[in-house]
Amino acid sequence: MSASSPSDPELARPVPMTAFEKRFRHPPGLVILFFAEMWERFSYYGMRGLLKLYMANYLFVTAREALQGCKQRVPPCELVAGNPDSVLFWSSIRGLLPDNPQEQASLLYGTYTALVYATPFFGGIIADRWLGQRKTVLLGGTLMALGHFAMASEDSFFLALGLLILGNGAFKPNISTQVGNLYAPGDPRRDGAFTIFYMGINLGAFICNLVCGTLAVVYGWHYGFAAAGIGMLLGLIVYMFGQKHLAVDNLSKTRAAHGEEHAPLDAGEKKRVLALVVLCVLNIVFWAVYEQQGNTMQTWADERTIWPTLFGFQVPSTWYQSLNPFFIILLAPLLDMFWRRQAKRGTEPTSVSKMAIGCFVLGSSFLVMILGAQVLAGDKGSLLWLVVCTLLLTVGELYLSPIGLSLVTKVSPARIVSMMMGMWLASSFLGNFLSGAIGVFYTRWSNQAFFSLLTVLGMGAGLAMWAFNRPLKAALEPEHAKTP
To answer: Which of 20, 117, 382, 447 is most buried, by the most CB atoms less than 10 A from its CB?
Structure first.
């Protein structure tokens, strides 16, 4: 990732040098975290890819699709009878929602994915103050595995969501923080490590829909949810047996340093924390638009897209959820090379500029869907509309998300880094909640008007971020000066 050697003597090593690191330029702990996160994301996105369709077409209706997507087939399958009132807490929650099952599913989908990103802030505090990153990750993974297996019963649906929300809050900020902990301050490999780690996230997200979505189509919804639970267990096993390759928890290090884990922030630290807070606020709109993938775009994939038949097998619409991670795996190395080339020429954008570019590209991706809606005029159409839109959307994501993760570990004070990572992820909380609220308009407006709204929101977020580029860069400058 850089001409600098990982064994430079001026860099204090958080983990011992190994033969693996000498050969592959990154410590073996990165591999452990890569695969632990890959399986955790397999479980999360495998469940998420089924979630909205499960609620709208099975759980909250009386005529249910026993197999995902069966009413869209030719000939369609027979629907089975169901009783939504058997779901615990549904009688109370239903009164807060619209009557349309698609709108109910949109709002609940947005609320769930929002809360998944709200709890990491508290999971970060728990790790920074009491348990440390490792114990908190194990706690979170266990809760999530229980949540996935609880999805096997319709009655425990909301209980399962609660376990998943709490588990993700403990797991997510602390697994990401440990990637940064593998590298000393100023180590130029850190950005590259987060790019590799981000590919692990998306490898899991790519595989999961091919597995969980296919099981839901062939055998039923609960087989898909069970596969997600097995994925979470595999992630826990990898993490448990690989802990010896990880860096010491930040909590242990700060306690060893005169027990100052609760020392107040100095002026420079406060300025960097404030800059991260501003970036988090600006990220909210990005995530509100981006998360339409699992919401309204999945509905388009299910209802408005002609899916091919491969060797006699009708490709399920949930495979759409694998397009984005596939493009990330394909494009991340290319963008990394592009940025390194820009860096050599002195033309690489700042982190904030990259994030602004990401918002612009995200907004422009929905211009494709506006055109698609005009061309199809209410009919079903080609998969290419989704493919091109998702390709552009993915470029926007790569300019924003991994850059933000790396930035948090660079500029956050070490004693609160997990909390700050949780705060960063919390920007997705409001974004996902807003995503669900925006998704309601998909059924109320024309498709052209709805996708136009997404375009305006994405580009507007980019303009706002660009306007704040200079002051944010100045606030983060002290830390950037240390990092090539």
So the answer is: 117
Question: How many CB atoms neighbour CB 244 within 10 A?
Answer: 9
Confidence of residue 449 (pLDDT cuts 50, 70, 90): very high
Rounded Cα distance between 16 and 145, Å, is 32
Per-residue pLDDT averaged across 459-472, rounded?
A: 84
**Helical axes 469-480 vs 447-467, angle rounded to 10°:** 50
The closest alpha carbon to 183, from 15, 50, 296, 28, belongs to 15
Three-class SS state of 183: coil
User: Could you give the percent of the chain with pLDDT greater than 70?
Assistant: 92
Contact 360, 398 (CB under 8 A): no
* pLDDT bucket at 208, cuts 50 / 70 / 90: very high
Query: Residue 190 has which token pair?
Result: 């850190």
- Closest Cα to residue 175, out of 207, 127, 130? 127
CA dihedral for 50, 56, 58, 64, sign (positive or negative): negative
pLDDT average, residue stretch 248-258: 68
User: How many Cβ atoms sit within 10 Å of the Cβ of residue 254?
Assistant: 19
The burial of 10, by beta-carbon neighbours within 10 Å (0-12 exposed, 13-18 middle, 19 or more buried), is given as: exposed
DSSP-derived 3-state class of residue 212:
helix
